[in-house]
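Person: Please work through this fold.
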Amino acid sequence: MTNNTAPPASPSLRPGSLVWQLLFFPQPLGETAALGLVRHWAAQRHAPQILLEARADRSGVEYLVGSQLRHAGQLKRQIESLIPGALVVPFTPEDRQPARVARRLVLTSRTRPLAPVDREQSVRSVLSAMTGLRPSESLTVQLVLGPRRRPTLPPVRPARSGQSVAGRLLRGVESERPDARQALIRKLGEHGFRAVVRLAVDAPTEERRKSLLLGLASAVSTVEAASSSLRLASEQPHRVNAPRANWSLFTASQLLNVAEVSYLSAWPITERDDPLPGQPPKHPKPLRPSAAYATGERIIGMASAPGTGTPVGYSVIDSMRHTWALGPNGTGKSTLLLNLIVQDIAAGRPVVVIEPKDLVRDVLARIPNSRIDDVVLLDPLDEAPVGINPLARTLGDRRSPDLVADTTFGLFEALYGDSLGPRSSDILRYCLGALALRDDASLVMLPLLLSNPGFRRSITQVAVKRDPIGAGSFWAWFDALSPEAASTVTAPLSNKLRPLLTPTLRAVLGQTAPRFNVRQVLTENKILLVPLQVGVLGHSAAQLLAAAVLAELWQAIRERVAIPEDSRTPVQVYIDEVQDFLRLPTNLADALATARSLRAGFTLAHQYGAQLPKPMHDAVAANARSRICFQLSAPDARLMTAGQSTLAPEDFMSLPAYAVYAQLVRDNTAQPWVSASTAPPPAKTSDPDAVRRSSRERYGHPLDTVEAAFMALVDPPAADTDQPVSYGRKARRQ
């Protein structure tokens, strides 16, 4: 949305005071748009004085527009409306470097128009003359547009211009050449101004000032025509440095039509995509935020378009429609996630973070004192790790053993998909069904269930009694297999279950009665942090643990359907490197669509689109309606620009580090794309070791305790493995 207000002014400024605004042109600036704006000014019946400046220093060329304060807001609106993509922002007058030498350009003909042979090359020549400046040097082209002139038609036989009075007395009034009338029509047949054109320079030495000024004057001369040229006249520098706010009747001016104003303005007018000297890069394109972005409480950064600097954010409810963060390593993606996580923690919301790098470590250093007790650090590498048990049913858990088994089976199905195979699926279902009937079961029992006959019989006997037709017939068939046949049948499944026996996963998933349940995230507003260092854990183990956490979390989210929607505290789930860790025991697209109404918002981050399997990519693209893009590769840039004309793929590909394009949902409406800069990491407020220690003491189990329980399974006291052996508590009564 265009801001139509006037620039902020000092209370001491009066409506008639001269104010300056900085003008940013779109690239390329088309001739049609530029002429349309100047023609609009020339046709105004109420004709305020307008000053146009092109100012160059060693950093490039910038464009100013000056007017009385009373007209500044209207001028801003006209520019931004008539030149799509233009931005006008306030400018401090003190930033105008004063000139030491000035000259005024004078046309040699009042009735012949300027006519460059090649308009774009003239623009390039002028801008080239304004580049290559040294420190403390500057060049200025200033146009003062005064009273307007309406179009007129010349006489059918116009008098020859330049004929002396004596010539008229001796020979009469001579007519112009046949083509002169067409030249007059081009000069006088369109709107114009009484105008002043000044060139100014500042440099340490007289020789350098002369060189720069003559170079600029020569470049401007490329707009001359055979019958109309430019010459330099003396001018006082103070008229450039401190111009009047209103037009003086005694101003030495000349007539310029609309086209001539554009020729002499040094505006970067071109129809080509080639970069012009002294101009900022065409990409990335700055985009202003809509007003809705300023009202969101979850801030992703600050608007980076010139003259903005306002927060860019969205609401907590809007974030329930999920967020897609895309960008390669080193662009600032982790810093963005850190800032959002810290905001959610400070607001008291439940948070889940699953990531493979250093994000959790950074979060631990930014926990408010009021929330240290809420932190649950599920780190499999900890000396007293927090455990989870998908097979456990806590007090008040109304799920049946069959539902627990089915939910846990969905975990493996989501992880391995079709590679699980029908036979392995059948074996896994009955194994989980048997384990779910016990109070002391855990996932690490699965490999033992397949390989240890005595342990298997102690576990399956309850399932056989409960379901003699289904479970009974299956386990009768399985127990009848020879050791070689059983090994062959279970080998594909054993390969997938073997990571459960690694020490790190054993320490987490082997706890039969962990002190933490994932449901506490939702019921007690916990902060669950899950660092998964793939280089230490291994890829398979990290994926399995992430799948277990998400399966438990998703089941807890689904159970919120029994709670009135207004009573569901929004939970924020962050998954970095989502392609490795997002495995849900249901269709992902359906899960994301359902999560919104259950007040669960997912922020999904990864490096590039090709990382995602097609079903996952389609689900994320369809359901993550808020998008935050860092520098993208060409395929991803084309994807983000599909269906819109505001941005080009080159814009996304040219973003520097910590710069984003974002399209966020506000009030269920996708807002226009906005350019923003993400905030730096927030200040550290806590001791990570102290937070880790607090989590360990509240929710962790010492490793030796967990290992002792596991070894009791592997090497039970009972030596006779042919007889049923009881492990842990008794089976649940059905």
User: Anything to note?
Assistant: The chain has 28 helices and 22 strands. Residues 416 and 496 are 8 Å apart (CA to CA). The mean pLDDT is 90. The radius of gyration is 37 Å.
